Amino acid sequence: MIGEGLNHLWQSTLFAVVAGLLTLTVRHAPAHIRYWLWVSASVKFFVPLTLLIELSSRLRWAQAALWVAQEEIALTLVQISQPFPDTWPPASSALSTPDVLNWLGLIILGAWACGFGSTALIRLLTWRRIRAAVRASIPLQIRGAEVPAGVRVRSAPGLLEPGVVGWLRPILLVPAGIEKHLTPQQLEAVVAHEVCHVRRRDNLTAGIHMITEAVFWFHPLVWWIGARLVDERERACDEEVLRSGCSPGVYAEGILKTCQFYVESRLACVAGVTSSNLKKRIEAIMRNRAGETVNVWKKLVLGLAIVLAVAVPVAVGVVNARQLPAQSAPIRPSSPALRVAPAGLQIDAANFCCPAYLTQMTERIRGNWVGQSDVNGSNVVKFTIERDGRIVDVVLEKPSGLQNLDERSRQALLMTNTVNPLPAEFPNPTLTVHLAFHYQP
Fold it and tell me: How many CA atoms lie within 13 A of 307 on its CB side?
């Protein structure tokens, strides 16, 4: 589990770095292009590469995968002999590794939970203050402002800047008395900026990234992506306001006056007007450049990056799916490939992905088996391990001819009942094992 998490982290980090390099290639393009590149980097933290590979491997080749899953697979032959040695050689020292990993996993999980809880609590307290402002607000009509249907405009007491709250039923919240500080044209420009946030669904994407920040609070790149998202979304709205015909001077002065009299919201999912680097925004507004047109080469680079981001994991899944038919035939035991104990436990792991799992399984069964006997004898018990580790379908496959010995072997499996769940690396839903018991005085 820890290894899978680390793989996902470095893959998402690499994806974010590539997205950042792409934003440099379109740094003079409209801001909304860079914004969606950063959104994709944020969302990637929730989409493991292995998930895309798994989905692609199951779409077209679902029938083949189902056929393989229905096969009874006998991958290993385990022999247990008496006497068992009192001490195990260094090769079996890996048995203690799961305990170490369990403690390490608990420590990591505890640290993550503390960070997640702290981040979520801070956001919750801030959101409660925003909701309190909404409850204290009253309806307001702003003359000359074009507000879309379904967006409510309300006036709230306090020093909070104008902002949009919510995304399903958005509320444009403006501070009471703002018309005393801004001219009608400036107020219209500020409202137009907020309407852009509503149309772009900026609160929704900001809320998604807030979840990313809470889950991956320990990753500095996630917080840097959040800052870039706020920066580019404000520039995108600025460009849209200027394209609508608003005077750059009036618009810039309206933003400066808003910053002078009101406080910026601390929540990224409350889209305001004073966020981002104010100096650079004012300079960009006064230059009134909506962004250069993206040329053909840059479009090709962006298109190729999008195609590769989807095509690479899909191609890996396709290759894996095509290899499934070759694995459909049952794999029969071969000569032992891994000797764990010189005189006791012997495992054929030549065709199985996870020999350590077999070692743990036989250790569990050995604890419920009485191997001492007055006579020599051997038998083979066949059983199936389900994905969750349950032992089912216990059958005496090769009797010893001695009822007492055969019953002991069968009872050892029935008493064990459950072993560790099948390893994630093992693709099939069940594992059939042929377990040979050897008795001797």
Answer: 6
Question: Which helix (H) or strand (E) covers residue 286, if one does?
Answer: helix 278-287
Give the integer Cα–Cα distance in Å for 168 and 147: 16
Among 370, 375, 427, 377, smallest CA distance to 401 is for 377
Instruction: Please report the beta strands in 176-324, taking only residues with DSSP state E, as ranges in sequence order.
Output: 271-272
Strand partners, 152: 171
Q: Kindly tell me the number of DSSP H helices and DSSP E strands found in the chain.
A: 13, 11
- Average of per-residue pLDDT values in the chain: 75
Check if the beta carbon of residue 230 is closer than 8 Å to that of residue 268: yes
**Helix ranges restricted to H, 345-402:** 355-366
CB 282 within 8 A of CB 255: yes
Tens of pLDDT, residue by residue over 248-283, are 899 988 888 888 777 766 666 666 666 667 788 888
Cα gap 158→114, rounded to integer Å: 33
Helix runs in 201-245, H state only? 202-215, 220-243
Token pair 């309300």 in the structure block, residue: 154
Q: Parallel, antiparallel, or unpaired for β 74-80 and 430-439?
A: parallel
Contact (Cβ atoms closer than 8 angstroms) between residue 334 and residue 350: yes
Nearest alpha-carbon partner for 239 in 173, 293, 164, 203: 293
